[in-house]
Amino acid sequence: MRSQRVWEVADIALAIRTENLTKIYDVGWGRQNMGIHNLSLEVEEGQVFGLAGPNGSGKTTTLKLLLGLIFPTSGTAEVLGESISSTSYKARVGYLPEGPYFYEHLNAPELLRMYGTLFGLGGPPLEKRIQELLELVDMWDRREYRVANYSRGMRQRVGVAQALINDPDLLFFDEPTSGLDPIGAKDIREVILELRDRGKTVFLCSHLLKEMEPICDNIVILARGELITRGSIEELLKSDEAQYRVEVREIDDATLATLTERAQKLMWLDDTCRALFDDRAQAFEAATMLEDAGARLLTVGPDRRTLEEVFIEAVGEESTDATDLQSG
Ligand SMILES: Nc1ncnc2c1ncn2[C@@H]1O[C@H](COP(=O)(O)OP(=O)(O)OP(=O)(O)O)[C@@H](O)[C@H]1O
Ligand SMILES: [Mg+2]
Known about the structure:
This protein is α/β, with parallel strands linked by helices. The protein has 10 helices and 15 strands. Strands 7-8-9-4-10-11 form a 6-stranded mixed sheet, sandwiched between helices. Strands 1, 2, 3, 5 and 6 form a 5-stranded antiparallel sheet that branches. A 4-stranded antiparallel sheet has the order 13-14-12-15, with helices on one face. Helix 2 (108-118) crosses helix 3 (123-136) and helix 3 (123-136) packs across helix 4. The chain starts with 7 loop residues before the first strand and ends in a 13-residue tail after the last helix. Magnesium ion (MG) is lined by residues 59-60, 98, 174.
């Protein structure tokens, strides 16, 4: 079921809108922590929206404000057409917290039955829903395991199922793939895309940029509680400097000198040399030249930045330490 359309901004329905949302935490002794500052954002209905940013940039704070778990210092926000101070929209949202905690002695159906009951569900419809959800997250065959014996991946899978028990229109996922192996992470990404196909809106907080890139329609990047940049993935990744890129490794000095003469711009990323060209033919000629010279050609094609590059450009390398930015 799609959520009711509440606002129409240029024919686009919004699931979330915040205006100058600010949260300052009082930490005692007259000291304060900035959670988020004057955050204004919009999330279109039916999209996967990504909130990215380094550790401590305010992602979880934003999410908790939108869920009504904490209260803003100033500013406003509406979720599914209602102010965050209202309670009724909460029946239509689902939430997977960072590192979810579940009763250790329960198995997956018992756990989902408990959450379903909280939403007033029961009987055969609830049992049917539990089976559907456990199949969706690939836990039906392992339904007899107790939470105490779960791997981290199983915990996240059941966490996703729990967030979906009330068939919400809007899902909040906080770092859903953190600590998962590549297969577990891929499965969660597939579930997110499946949810979008079913018309749900997904609000995803993560600092795993490589994971956000293929699944998010729109992204906002936060740093130190402030919005640094926003846009669709296409807009953010489009390079405005040059149109074609050639990437190469194991290049000798003479070939590098020729490449430097021909390219509009040259940069190094570890041991990979990236040359940018305005013109497609020039890029392909350079690629042929490099191959003939015995260098290891990695890519040649339209220039597309990675989200990681956009992120570093926006946030600034000096403000993120190595642990802040993981590429997944
Ligand atoms: N309960 C709290 N009391 C005081 N300060 C807090 C509290 N929760 C968060 N903060 C502060 O607010 C800022 C934003 O934290 P938040 O947890 O929202 O960031 P985050 O982007 O989710 O980080 P991470 O990637 O580590 O999960 C940080 O400076 C943090 O220390
Ligand atoms: Mg967080």
